[in-house]
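Why this split exists: single-chain examples teach little about how molecules sit against one another. For that reason, every record in the complexes split bundles all components of an assembly together and asks for one structure covering all of them. Below is a record exactly as it appears in the raw files.
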Amino acid sequence: KAGVTQTPRYLIKTRGQQVTLSCSPISGHRSVSWYQQTPGQGLQFLFEYFSETQRNKGNFPGRFSGRQFSNSRSEMNVSTLELGDSALYLCASSWRTHSYNEQFFGPGTRLTVL
Amino acid sequence: GESVGLHLPTLSVQEGDNSIINCAYSNSASDYFIWYKQESGKGPQFIIDIRSNMDKRQGQRVTVLLNKTVKHLSLQIAATQPGDSAVYFCAELAGADGLTFGKGTHLIIQP
């Protein structure tokens, strides 16, 4: 069974631009969560989607948004990029919401903001 | 604000020895804890979890200990192998706000 896939794997943007990252969950998984990982702050929860609805949101500004499609694929968007947005963005999928012990992570998208 | 933290950024152990990785948390309302392993270039991988109504849980070669009195969590890895080299971090859950993660300990295995 294929794992969680994220595209693109690497991305370079400049300040002020916007970016869209994509996550394809494991087949049958309906929950997708997004996380930001930086050396300074570690791993931080962004938001979770389940059945196309945002179920939970972390403490990030409104520049960070996401959505989930009917096939459970999810995208996250960051508008007006700042240097501090440089990070590894991870998504994770699971069958159910809040199912952390059944959650599988993708390899991440490495975003560099110049 | 309250957060989860780790005591050491790097831990070096001899192959075959036991490893103990520590984590301190400050939110007394946290009732669920997870340990993750993250290898270079990969996403985190769930290792083991524990609920606050337990003080010990064992898996395959791993044991998690929870001391609620001092708000301390530890991960013990028995007979450490080269494949155990990774960053390990803990996470806590309090309420419905999502997981809060520690920054991680880099476990280095010496031959």
